[in-house]
Structures are given as C-alpha cells and as structure tokens.
Amino acid sequence: MNQQIRLKLNDVDVTSMIIGETTLHQAINEPSTLDTTINLVSARLDTLDLRGQIILEVIQDGEVYRQFTGYVVEGLSDGTLYTLHCEDPMQILKEAQGGGAFGAGLLPGEVIFYLLSTVMPESTNGNYIHSGQEGRTIAECDWLFNKRKFAFIAPYPPCKLSQNSVNFGDVTLYTPKGQGNIDDQLIADSLSENHSEEWEEGKGRVLFYVQAESFLEAFEIGRRKLRAFMDFLCFGAHYSTPVYPSQTGNVPHDYNRERSLIDFSYPRWAYVRDLVPSQKPRFWLRWYAPHRRADQLNITADDPLVRLYPLFSELLEEDEKYLSEQQRPLINALHALRNSRQAESTLDGVDFIWQCVEFLSASYSVPELFSGSDRKALRRVTKCLMDKRYKDVEQKDKERRQQLLSTKIGELNRANTREKWEAFCADHNLEYSEADTTFLWKTRDIRNDAIHGRSASIARPEIERAAVLLEKAVIAAVQKLTSTKNE
User: Are strands 269-274 and 130-133 parallel, antiparallel or unpaired?
Assistant: First the structure.
C-alpha cells in the first residue's frame, strides 16, 4: 500500500518544508488539532500566509483523502524551526462570537450556517450543514431563502429626539421607553448578559423594513441603507449655506454650529427580525465588527513586535518635517493598510487597500516610449489634421480640440496604476503567484465598481487576503529603504 501525506497552506504545498512528524489529534466531542514543524531555511517561506486555510491530505494508491481542514492559531520560532499549531474551523466560529444573539425560532443548523457565512463565505455550503429539522440540510430548507419582509433596527446614540419618534420617509428615528415594542423587548432580553451602551434605554434607534431572501441579505441591504441615511444626517447637520435650491426656488436652511461637532460614527450593532409569522421569534441581534475585538494586546519584553520594530525604527522615529520622498509614502501606506483591516465597511476596506498600493508605487514610472521630439512632432501633425478636418469650425472649438490632443500626447509616457505596481514589484524583487496577482486586480475592479456607483461587494476574508499580499510589499519597501540608507 503506497501512502503519503500532503500539507497545503492557503493552496500552497508546504509538504517539502516539513521536518519531523505531523501530529493530528481527533477525538469525539473535542476540537481537532494539528501540529507540525517546518524548516526556517526553506525556500518560498516568505510567500506563506499563516492566516490562510491549512489542509492535511493523505494520498493512498492515487486516491486523495482529506484528514484535516483548519487554521493556524500560533506559529512559534526557535531560531531554526517554526512550529505551527492549528485548530479546526470551529476556531473561526470562536473568533466570530463577540456578542449578539439568535431568536429561539431559528434552526440549530441555520445558526451555524449564518455564523460560518459571516467569516468564511467561500467555504460555507448549505448542502453539508444539517438544519436540525426532519433530517434535512440547510440547502434543502427552501423556505429559508424565500424573499420576505424583515425589520431592521440599529442603535444610533448621536440622535436625541424631542418626541418619541421622527419619520424620514420610510426611516423612523425613535427612542425606546419602558417595554417598547416587541423588537425592543427582544433586544433587551438578549442583552441581559451581554450589555452594550449603544442599546441603553433613552438612546436613539433607527427602524426601517427591507425585502430580502435571508438574514444575511437583510443585514447587507439594511447596512447599506443605514449607511446612506447616516451619511445624509452627517451632510445635513454640517450644511452651512443659508439656503439650498429646489424646483420652486431657494429654501432656507437653519444652521447650528454645535451639530457639526457631533460624532457620526456607524453603530457596531444591528438587529434583524423575520416578519413571517412563527411560533417562536426569528431574529438575529448581531455585532457589526466581529473581525475586531476590544481585547488588550498582550506584549512581553521579548515579543515578536519588539523584535520586528528595529526594521521600522528609522522610518517611525524620523522627525516628520525631515521625512524623505521615499519615507512619507511608506508611512502613509502603513496607515492605509491598518485602516483597511479596521474599516467596518468592507468597501471602505478595499478602498484603503488601493490607497496602500498607490502610496507604495506612485513614484514609479516606465521607460519612455515617446521622446520629447516625438511628442512635438505629434503635436504638429495633429494641428495640421485639425486645421484640415475642422476648417469650418469656429476657432474657439478648434483650439479646444487641439488642447485636448496636446494634453493626451503629453501623457503618452505616463504609467498607469498596474504598470507602476509592476515596476515597484520588480524593483523590490517581489514575486506574486498568478492567482494572487489576478485576485489583487479583481479587488481593484470591485473598488472601481463602488467608486463609479455600480453594485459592488467584497467579503472580509478577501480584504484580509489582499492586506497579507501588501504586508510583503511594505516589508520589502522598508528593508530596501533601510539597506539603501546604510550603504
């Protein structure tokens, strides 16, 4: 019998890096764990992403059997070896459970499906999750994905109402008092052991209704609508012109300076209830930011962060007014990368990803294809063409055409974002796989769709994957800057 193992980290085969035994622990009612050790002098070690999925496979007589799927929880170095401790996907669920509650009317498998979908959507399949109802899987419960009406409520403390409620079209701002409505009661009961100041009685809330095919879609639609409404409130509160135009003329607008000082941050919680009648309430009280926690960062004297700092020290300790043209963009890139991970909206996150790319590569160019004399000749030719082709056009319009062509000719050697990024990578000896490169530029398409008003969405794990790719670029840029200065 011919048998061998294969270990893959984020689709990269790392089997050749393994030193010693790979230990898999599996027991009933216990989380599965995997421990393995890789050689620190292995080739391609600097291309690995420890936040990716790790898979252990056994190949026996040509057949592949998956033995373990999970995530690296800890990676420790002893100078020559690097030990990985991995846990099964329940680790991701553990990380996601930072607050909130589900109504008693949700099926057990439905809860698991939703939790998994929020943190690893690419790997969640309803065909493999039992619903807990009559032996059916989630995918077989068609009624869970029928379009229906949901109530969406979010806390919004910045708003203090002079009356119980104020309507803005189909959006209601209100202040819960006493028992309130059924939704307020469910929220209060769910928060009894997980209190949040945002939900305190007497603080404002936003209520509206959405049509969606599932709880997940209801949250997405609701969050977009809430975000747009809050952007409107912020805009209106800051509007400082005495009038605004309308079809019937200027309309007076009262101004209050204190309103412009209010914090219009997005709330970190939201609540959705399925309005299809059921014996038990079907709701989800959800924390907005399960990807980040308010826990403290424990740091020791010999912490990996302490060891990493010397690489960045010269950059971070330089007086701001003396930063070079190479240092300043690098500091901005570091800032954009942090914002991409902290952003509560993933579309904001992907925008920060591309701010980071542009900060890193903005100063790069490509070899000139058209010399100065080439461009002068092109301008002369286009002027002759304009004079001949548009001889009956007014001189003013002719000059506008010529100016536009002259500007475009002047930009012939200007590198686009992709060319600049490729030049940056070449200068820093950065090599990304074809899959990583394709993925990175796919995120740019998503960012461009969002900027131009087209429908766009991106999952949290995709933001993290893009950020990991840029980590390597930041490290390479800092290293090159340091080594160049020391030469």
Answer: unpaired
